[in-house]
Amino acid sequence: MKSISRRTVFTGGLGAAALTLAACGNRTAPTEAGTFSPPPVLTPNAGQNVVTQTLTAAPTIVDLGGKTVSTWAYGENLPGPLIRATAGDLLRITLENRLPETSTIHWHGIRLHNAADGVPGMTQDPVEPDTSFTYEFVAPDPGTYFLHSHVGLQLDRGLYAPLIIDDPDEPGDYDAEWIVTLDDWIDGTGQTPDEVLAALTGSGP
């Protein structure tokens, strides 16, 4: 059976599109800090490209097609800023937590070492408010991914962003590219994600 590359799927005519879906299940609640050792500091190989970026999680105001809502996001953007690298690059991404509660970043679909996986209580201590945490990992596989918080219902606010890993052996030769992130929305429209979950589980009023 012939394999289908990301470029084959998303390239057409004059443009290419990358699609991310803001959804992830089984988000784990954080545990007490101090359980996990700090992640290892990775040293780049000779000639290895290093991609650095800081994502600041904070309360913000966003415009949802004319409706203004209060929510949480990375860098006051919804979705958060694109992170782009090439397979084999070393990524150093720092989470600055300016939320009133703990947070983490999970790299959805990326093969990486456990300490960078971003699941509080399972792979790392939650990142406390007004502190930072740097994730370091090598992205081995090209593809269209996304990153998101793995604490409570933070993903159901605005804490997610696209992550594109390009194939060094398959450079895109299209004229234009679109990155589309699909999500439904609740926060700021009359109910919070927490209120909706409480009603669905029967624990609400």
TrEMBL record:
Residues 1-22 form the signal peptide. InterPro entries: Cu-oxidase-like_N, Cu-oxidase_fam, Cu_oxidase_CS, Cupredoxin, TAT_signal. CDD domains: CuRO_1_CumA_like (cd13861). Keywords: Copper, Metal-binding, Oxidoreductase, Signal. The keyword Oxidoreductase applies. SUPFAM superfamilies: Cupredoxins. Transmembrane segments: none annotated. Residues 63-169 form the Plastocyanin-like domain. The keyword Signal applies. Pfam families: Cu-oxidase_3. This is FtsP/CotA-like multicopper oxidase with cupredoxin domain.
